[in-house]
Amino acid sequence: MPGYTVEKPILLPLKDGTYKPVRINNILYAEVDKAYIIVHYVDGKSEPFPISLTKLEETLPADYFSRTSRNYIAAIYNVDNVGKDAIKIGAVTLPLTDKYRRQFFSRFYSFIGKD
To answer: Which PROSITE patterns does the record match to this protein (predicted)?
Structure first.
């Protein structure tokens, strides 16, 4: 998404049919929880949204976010540690599966300016 910055909000649906603006730079990661995704924020709070992880992935700018597994999307700019099979954001460890590893590293290196 050209022109996107992490300060811009995205609109995420609430279960009452309304939408909530969520600033991209407030998102640490998102995970699947049954029919909802749980968005975890930098302030330690989290919030459920009735949206699929695929739809969320399409909404978030690819320059700043990457899927790490079937059930997780991480904010690349908040990653503290990267291993072969996992990443760490703060005290939270997220899986990094074979299916998404290449995409994650490609986006990560692009983000930090390494080609």
So the answer is: HTH_LYTTR
